[in-house]
Every structure is written in C-alpha cells, then in structure tokens.
C-alpha cells in the first residue's frame, strides 16, 4: 500500500492508497502480507500516478481523490519497474505506461484506451529499470545481468543492445533531451502557384512564421505565424492552400484566401515532406518511413 501525506495543522495528513479491499471498519496499516510495491511514477500533468507490484499488477490512481481508476493485471509475473510516457507531439491524450516484468518481458499499456498496446521480450532475465525517450518513441530497458535494450515503442523492435554494464544489475536509466545547437530548421522557399509575383519562405529566425515576399514590390507583404519551426512546405497548385509539416509530428493546412488554419495529427515522427498532387485533390506527407495520403475536400 502507499501512504500519501500533505501538510496539515500540527503535522502531516496522510491518505492511503490501498490496492486490496479491507473488511468494513478496518483501517489499512502497513503490512508485509501484501505484495510489495516496486515503483511509483507520475503523469506529466501530475493528475495521476501509477504503481506496480510483485503480484504483476499496474494500477493508475487519481491524485485528487486518491482513487484507483485503472488496473492492468499480468498473472504469474512480478512487475518490477514502470515508466510513464512524456508529453510529446502535442498529443497529451496519448499517454502510455511501460512496465517491465520478471520474465524479461516489457509491456506497453495505453492509459487513454485502457488496453495493452504491445508486448515485447527484449531481455532473457528480469527487467530492473525502464524509461521512455524524451519524444516517447523509444523505450530503454535494463535487466538484472546489466544489459540495456533500446526498442521502438510502437513496433516493439529492439534495434540496439548495450552491454557496457554487463555483470551488474541496471538500477536506473535517465534520459535527456538532445541538444539542438548547430542544428537549425531548414530554409524553404516556393513561388505561389496562384500568383507568380509572390514568394513564400520559412526558416530559422527570431519568429516562427511564413514570410510572403512580393517580388514586384520588393518587400514583405504578409507574415503568417506558426506554432513551431517548419520542417516541410508545399503549396497547392489548384487552390490557395499551404501545407506545413513540423518536427512535433503535426501537419498544418493554411487557407491563404481566408487566413484560416487547421492542424492535423497522424504521424508519429517529424513531418519532413509535404507534396500536393498536380490536381490538388490529394496531399502526401512523409514522416520517417511512413506516408499518409490526405484527401482535400470542398474545393
């Protein structure tokens, strides 16, 4: 069980998260009769926490009420380590848990869908540590023999094993965000198909924006603000539409006639390529090794 405390008059007020039902009128007390709790992790917004224990359970608790809201159970296995996915790609609703077990297996649970997404077996012995990469796309897991496996959190494929610590259990794994100094976003420019005198440009600068330059007037005539620096750019040849891809796994479609914009989520990696078809009826976007095809309607 877990005791949670908060400051109160004259000391601390405690609240207990008890994962097992107790007889009416009996108050939970610390006891060795319950399976040991091995890890506690918190959601990015601190609205929930998750625990794992020797009985193979993963439990999600609402911190405001201290109530159990979700439980994942694996029979005949001990859950030894746990990690909560970071906020990434602007989609906080896609929260996941990575849980490591005594048989060397690793499971990915979807908190929002209350379901197991993936089971992989990257280790031959018990897992002792697990964490997500800062973008949530990679899971790093360590085992009792000192091996660290680097796996894709969507496909379950292990693409690297580190043996530098072999012979000693991995006790913890920490990750940090990759430094981007010297890696600037690309500079992209394209002529407007609907007005040959206009040139659109995105690139590194003080502000995140699309700059529209009029070649005849030799001056900037409009700036369109963006939420992030652009990774890709495409202009529709048949309509006044502008497609912009971002490293944050998002696609934005801008209607230059009305000035309105709409964002779309669908990729799991940086949208590094956008291309309208010559008919302007379809838009192809690419992120890493996946391609999505979007139908442009109402035109």
TrEMBL record:
WD repeat windows: 37-71
Domain WDR90 4th beta-propeller residue range list: 36-180
Keyword terms of this UniProt record: Repeat, WD repeat
Database matches in Pfam families: WDR90_beta-prop_4th (PF23342)
Keyword Manganese: no
Matches recorded under SUPFAM superfamilies: WD40 repeat-like
Name of the molecule in the record: WD repeat domain 90
Origin species: Rhinopithecus bieti (Black snub-nosed monkey)
